[in-house]
Write a structure and sequence with these properties.
The complex is a heterodimer. Chain A is α/β, with parallel strands linked by helices. In chain A, 37% of the residues lie in helices and 17% in strands. Chain A has 22 helices and 22 strands. In chain A, helix 3 runs parallel beside helix 5. Chain B has 2 domains: 77 residues, 2-Layer Sandwich (Alpha-Beta Plaits); 70 residues, Alpha-Beta Plaits (2-Layer Sandwich). Helices cover 29% and strands 40% of the residues of chain B. Chain B has 4 helices and 9 strands. In chain B, a hairpin with a 5-residue loop joins strand 2 and strand 3. The radius of gyration of chain B is 18 Å and the shape is elongated. Classes of the chains: A alpha/beta, B alpha+beta. The interface between A and B is medium-sized, with 19 and 20 residues.
């Protein structure tokens, strides 16, 4: 039997749980815990420069690895600074455990210094939260937190730890709980066999089927199975932004991604389909456009581990509650040995899809002419070539995010790391930092814009402290591009506060931290600069790429329209 | 349509706020709410009446079930059930109205549980409709104060909501 203080139990538990990195920032209420972390060397604490960055870094790691990220912050402002990152993880179902210091129990409710009811503040943006009420609870509560965060539909869990719970003088028995049980929490492990059979029958009989798969396939580690199933059937597949890479994008059956800025062929195929096989996707408003006009001729099979995602916005004809991986495997075994009922219809369907593809081929954007500003799309295409499509690509939010998702070709899951649900500017750089520390031998690049980057650029200091060699590609159009695009389309080009006046000299800024910055103005300079940036895996390099400020992201769905209603360029629409 | 949802909830601090928060967060509607511990001190029973079409009610029950503190729930309106609410009302009872109030209390099978020279405090139990009707009948006399518990309910027959 081992007697440990609450603080030492936390440090010990994190070791036993196999946590390698914890991202955080110290402060009064967390100091006992920090002292315990200092007295051990298995769990490495990464000191960020703002708590929001700690959550994004842990989130980035979680998205790349599929394991829960871990954060430690102090009470009050430390915890409230983490809120945006917790909400980001919640919206994209990312496993994360956030340990928050709290003022001592006897002070709670007295508006003590640095006191915030963080359990209350985060209640709508967590999967669950705990408050520690006795030090002896710590091992079990932490185990429950990690268990809840990473099973079922994953999500962030907050653990509120009053300072007296971690006092070094009070010691209790510590045993690492290998397993925990919660009587009210039993995530489904497989789908209903009858429903799966019914779904497979419909799949085999479909004439114009489309797979529509989302982040649930990535977090559910079901990419391989999905690829098998889709290949066996020979059906087209489109993914959500969050589902990119779950099926190789370079394969002919992949139509790209769908929705507001999805590919023309994806949105057209969805609109004309007679069967939509949705797996791990949630019919989000950025996908469906107007739900009343959504896919008028399609029956819908919807597989999701979260029953509340099914029939939330669009009614499912065959709902299947279950994890993507086991449902897909069951579908594969049911499909095997069966032929599709209408191969001629499938051929016709593909002809139609190939027609849509051909319609837009070579017309996606207009490349820059010599002497003109670079197009952001060209930059992403070059980035994809230079990194052979194998990098971890994190993004911030806005036009550059859409360009990165459209023009980088992802053949693997967990490679596009982006804040899809919450759309958090500032996410990309700290997320890249979290990934790079865990995957030091891989290329990790943050595609950002000068607006987003300035929201979290203080993390350059963290990268300096820990020698984190991420690459940053700043698509600098000197404006908040997506805001500006909407102002062009809906506000007669009145650019209210979308112009970034007084930008810093990024070159000097980056050099002030001792890193390399390269400014790119022309197409000739682009590839050599990228090659230079990626030459050394362990060096942070910042590319300030000056791009055309007038460029828009297309296709763009017309608001309140159907899937097929899109603007295709500044002058064309469907 | 009006639904009565009964929930067995972990008797933990903060559990109630998760349920109530869910309703406001997701734009669902709470008409009445009633909560107290059960015979098992680790569980509370919470009964909420809400209004919504089938799609909304389906979402409400699914989201409630997702809350870690919700152990079990039932939509009582899906089957035969007993619905009760308790109300305490202070009504003016002066002059001729004093007898009239007493008679109405008898008609509604309510009870007068406290008396002063100028008012009666009435206790009445029933479904929400009966309580509403009593208030309507008392309105001309003069209602001074109303305290309602909100609806509580239980399924008829052998069906039991327990672990």
């Amino acid at each position: 039997m081992e007697l440990l203080s609450g603080a030492d139990m936390i440090a010990r538990f994190l070791q036993d749980e196999g946590i390698e990195y914890i991202y955080g920032y110290p402060g009064g209420a967390a100091l006992h815990i920090y002292d315990a972390l200092f007295r051990q060397d298995k769990v490495k604490h990464i000191l960020v420069r703002h708590e929001q960055a700690a959550t994004h870094a842990a989130d980035g790691y979680a998205r790349a690895s599929g394991k829960a990220g871990c954060v430690l912050v102090t009470s009050g402002p430390g915890a409230t600074n983490a809120v945006t990152g917790i909400a980001t993880a919640y919206m994209d179902s990312i496993p994360m455990v956030v340990l928050c210091g709290q003022v001592a129990s006897h002070l709670i409710g007295e508006d003590a210094f640095q006191e915030t009811d963080i359990v209350g503040v985060t209640r709508p943006i967590v999967k669950h939260s705990f408050s520690i009420r006795h030090p002896s609870e710590i091992p079990e509560v932490l185990k429950k937190a990690f268990y809840l965060a990473s099973t079922g539909r994953p999500g962030p869990v907050v653990v509120d730890i009053p300072k007296d719970m971690t006092a070094p003088t009070e010691r209790y028995e510590y045993v690492y709980p290998k397993k925990v049980k919660l009587r009210s929490y039993n995530p489904v492990t497989r789908g209903h066999t009858g429903q799966i059979k019914k779904a497979v029958e419909m799949m085999l009989k479909a004439k114009r089927p489309v797979f529509y798969t989302g982040g649930g396939v990535v977090t559910g580690k079901a990419s391989e199975g999905l690829t098998d199933l889709v290949k066996q059937l020979g059906y087209p597949i489109t993914t959500t932004l969050m589902g990119i890479g779950a099926y190789p994008q370079s394969d002919r059956q992949c139509l790209g991604w769908l929705g507001m800025h999805g590919s023309y062929e994806s949105n057209m195929a969805m609109h004309h389909a007679d069967l939509i096989i949705a797996i791990g996707a949630r019919f989000d408003d950025r996908v469906t456009n107007s739900t009343s006009k959504f896919c008028p001729t399609a029956k819908i099979i919807h597989v999701d581990v979260d029953p509340s995602s099914i029939s939330k916005t669009v009614r499912a004809d065959v709902p299947i509650v279950g994890p993507a991986s086991s449902v897909i495997n069951e579908m594969i075994s049911l499909v095997q040995g069966h032929k599709i009922a209408h191969p001629e219809a499938l051929t016709e369907w593909w002809e139609k899809i190939d027609g849509w593809r051909a319609d837009r081929e070579g017309k996606l954007y207009e490349p820059s002419k010599p002497g003109e500003a670079l197009k952001p799309q060209e930059v992403i295409e070059a980035l994809c070539r230079v990194t052979r499509g194998e990098a971890y690509v994190t993004t911030d939010v806005g036009q550059h995010q859409m360009f990165a998702a459209q023009y980088y070709k992802f053949d693997k899951p967990n490679r596009l790391i982006t804040s899809g649900g919450l759309g958090t500017m500032g996410f990309g750089f700290p997320a890249a930092m979290g990934i790079k520390q865990n995957y030091p031998d891989d290329d990790v690049v943050c595609v950002t814009g000068e607006g987003s980057f300035q929201m979290m650029m203080q993390e350059l200091s963290t990268c300096k402290q820990y020698g984190v060699g991420v690459k940053i590609v700043n698509l600098n159009n000197a404006s908040l591009g997506m805001v500006r695009q909407w102002q062009d389309l809906n506000y007669k080009s009145r650019h209210a506060h979308s112009y970034m006046e007084s930008l810093p000299d990024f070159h000097m800024l980056i050099e002030a931290y001792g890193f390399t910055a390269i400014t790119v103005n022309t197409l000739d300079e682009l590839e050599p600069a990228l090659e230079r940036a990626f030459a050394d895996k362990h060096e942070l390099v910042f590319l300030d790429v000056k791009v055309d400020p007038f460029e828009h992201v297309y296709p763009m769905q017309v608001p309140l329209g159907a899937m097929r209603d899109m603007l295709l360029s500044k002058t064309e629409r469907t | 349509m009006r639904h009565i949802i009964s929930i067995l909830l972990e008797n933990e601090p903060g559990a109630l706020s998760r349920v109530v928060g869910l309703f406001s967060q997701r734009n669902f509607n709470i008409e009445t709410l009633n909560v107290a511990p059960t015979e098992d001190p680790s569980l509370s029973r919470l009964t909420v009446t809400t209004v919504g079409d089938d799609r909304v009610i389906e979402q409400i029950t699914k989201h409630l079930n997702k809350l870690i503190d919700v152990v079990k729930l039932v939509d009582l309106t899906e089957g035969n059930h007993i619905e009760r609410e308790l109300m305490l009302v202070k009504v003016k009872a002066l002059g001729a109205a004093r007898d009239e109030v007493k008679r109405t209390v008898d008609i509604f099978r309510a009870q007068i549980v406290d008396v002063t020279p100028s008012l009666y405090t009435v206790q009445i139990t029933g479904d929400a409709g009966k309580l509403d009707a009593f208030l309507q009948a008392m309105a001309p006399v003069g209602i001074l104060e109303v305290a309602r518990t909100g609806v509580s309910g239980i399924a008829r027959g052998d069906k039991v909501l327990s672990l």
